[in-house]
Amino acid sequence: MHRRGFLQQASLGAAALLAGKLAAQEVGYTLPKLPYAYDALEPHIDAETMKIHHGLHHKAYIDNLNKALAGNDLAKLPIDQLMRDIDKVPASIKQTVINNGGGHANHTLFWEIMGPKGGGQPTGALAKAIDEAFGSFDKFQTAVGTAGLGRFGSGWSWLVVGKDKKLHVLSTANQDSPLMAEQTPLLGLDVWEHAYYLKYRNRRGDYIKAWWNVVNWPAIAERHAKALRG
Ligand code: MN3
Questions:
Q1: CA 6, CA 4: separation in Å to the nearest integer?
Q2: Out of 3.40.50.300, 3.40.50.20, 3.55.40.20, 3.30.200.20, which CATH number does the structure's domain 43-230 have?
């Protein structure tokens, strides 16, 4: 009787310990599931590039971010909030968090603002705001393309809502996130070679031209409305 009670207690204890271990492993950031199949953006973005980009590159940013923030309460923040609060990150790990937290935030947005039924032009309030800020949709597209082509080395071209609540196009180096400068990214174009090299080789301009065919404007319009509310 007593022995049985003890064994039950012991196995409960072991279960609790195991649950604790599992919970500890789950703390931190996880790779978001791609909202479509790896081959869904063909022929503009090839399946092999998507597979490596999401499953290896994005995954590596997350693993490195979790390693850098192990045991730190900052790891409980949603990734966008972590990047907005980058000045709270201890100096010894700040650049690692900029690189890998930025990589996580940027790629999470990137997957969401692309889609298999993409392309075309925005409508409604976003279309109006783009016309007001850039003169026309064509001029806006040119600005994003020029920022992406002009980024020497690795980085991103962005459409953001600035502190002034207006739209701006800009580029950032490496995995720097506009969130660190109190800007809210709506559209992000990854111009790292890993985003296009398998299919487009060194032809970044061809990749950018093709990329507009997979842009998910409804998702970007939603981000725009949310940024203006927030
Ligand atoms: Mn990338």
A1: 5
A2: 3.55.40.20
pTM above 0.85, yes or no: yes
**Distance between CA 166 and CA 52 in Å, rounded?**
35
Residues with CB under 5 A from ligand 1 (ion): 190, 192, 195
Using the mean position of ligand 1's atoms as its centre, give its distance from the Cα of residue 106 in Å.
Answer: 8
Mean pLDDT of 62-78: 97
| CA gap 214, 172 in Å, rounded | 21
